[in-house]
Design goal:
Blueprint: E1 10-11, E2 14-16, E3 19-21, E4 26-31, E5 36-42, H1 46-64, H2 68-84, H3 86-97, H4 101-122, E6 130-133, E7 138-146, E8 149-153, H5 159-172, E9 176-180, H6 187-199, E10 206-208, H7 213-222, E11 228-232, H8 235-245, E12 251-255, E13 260-264, H9 270-282, E14 292-298, H10 299-313, H11 334-349, E15 353-356, E16 378-381, H12 388-391, E17 398-404, H13 407-414, E18 419-420, E19 422-426, H14 430-439, E20 444-447, E21 462-463, E22 466-467, H15 472-478, E23 480-488
Parallel strand pairs: 1-5, 8-9, 8-11, 9-10, 11-12, 13-14, 13-19, 14-17, 16-17, 19-20
Antiparallel strand pairs: 2-3, 4-5, 6-7, 7-23, 12-22, 15-16, 18-21
Helix pairs in contact: 1-7, 2-4, 2-6, 3-4, 4-5, 9-10
Bound molecules: nicotinamide-adenine-dinucleotide.
Amino acid sequence: PRMAHSKALLVLENFIGGKFVPCSSYIDSYNPSTGDVYCRVPDSGKEEVEAAVKAAKDAFPIWSSKSPLERSQILNKLADLIEYELEAFAQAESKDQGKTITFARAVDIPRAVHNFRFFASSILHHVTECTEMPTMGCVHYTSRAPVGVAGLISPWNLPLYLLTWKIAPAIACGNTVVAKPSEMTSVTAWMMCKLLEKAGVPPGVVNVVFGTGAKAGEALVCHPDVPLISFTGSTLTAQRITEKSAPHCKRLSLELGGKNPAIIFDDADLSQCIPTTVRSSFANQGEICLCTSRIFVQRGIYSEFLKRFVAEAKKWKTGNPSDPTIDVGALISKEHLEKVRNYVKKAQAEGARVLCGEGVDPLALPLGNQKGYFMLPTVIAEVKDESCCMQEEIFGPVTCMVAFDTEEEVIKRANSVKYGLAATVWSSNVGRVHRVAHRLQSGLVWTNCWLVRDLNLPFGGMKASGIGREGAKDSYEFFTEVKTITIKH
Ligand code: NAD
């Protein structure tokens, strides 16, 4: 692969059958914190996807016949190699995505490493079922086998983190893969490809095809030799993928958007709740599918909460993502920034109050970042539940705050959106916490905390937030085909 020298751009290449292959056309990729093009990404289509699927099919017989232990050792080696270059990966993720270097160092890259270690371990511990029917003289048991070539499509918000959350279980189970990262954040996937051979991943087991969703992504979804697609991204794209894959009856795992509520009762420990809810609203510029974007506060503490929350949000510093003292980096693109800003404008037009951030406070940026896609953490109050700001996923540093009176009322209001990914509940009453958690339409409920994850347990959303779950057992089940075998003596 060609690396940039002096002013030349970084040029990525597809990784197919263990080799880097140039593409006939390229797309520009921007550094969100400066607005400059800094990288060129292959604009792959059918031809490149065809070559990658063929390489993956050819590699399947050998890879799928390896023992889980052999595969596990290779995954662990890959984890070590990424960890060894953690700083380079973190720098690249921050530059490519706009996220702060602090977040990339603390969250993105360590989690990518952990994804490989976690599945390297968990693949060794699955047991299959067995039942007996003594009167029939029969024993039944199940066996699980890898499915084949898995198509993996990931978004731009947590690039390497989410891609490896799919690659690791897919190959641990013995599948081979063709992955397509977001065209806006392809660099760390390309860097990972450079480590595969050294880790002992045979050629063709992991292929990465770069390009847009419409061309490369759709070619993968429509390919007849790719029986399963694991997708993380927007609900709109998932609908298109479902449609396109229907003629092939593909197995789909869909991890989609959210409109996540935080419910704060008047007996909550505000000293914990406020900083955590500021973090759950604005971490990674609010570009995490699990970010809070509707805060329901019980009326008795509403005005105090609001005041303290805004004061805390104002402490978050926005600026150059490579500065380790910065909390909020740049949004992914100019278009996305405009979209997020427009939500704030719509809220104002509807009579809501913007308490801090966009249009209210000055945004001072260093000279080199003047053309970057920055926005201050923004808090909106007095928004109607029907407003698009309370119904649609904004996916930026914007959070809406409203008051509620009763438990019954808040459950109903929290559930009154099309999404159902994550929710947080804050209360010191354990009975209430259980009651509310059970009644929320949400794949994940965190009480008195946020984003504490045990990868063993299911992750995913209800309603328009997805189909299927990911996790130790769930990913194992998705990436394997089960068979029931009956033996009569
Ligand atoms: P997106 O749907 O625009 O794109 C996701 C991926 O799909 C990209 O790689 C894109 O190139 C590809 N794609 C686009 N159109 C395609 C098509 N027709 N066929 C095949 N592939 C196609 O999403 P995004 O804007 O990159 O990411 C943001 C979204 O992802 C948000 O809605 C966010 O909530 C969601 N998300 C969900 C989770 C989760 O785990 N539930 C995690 C992170 C992000």
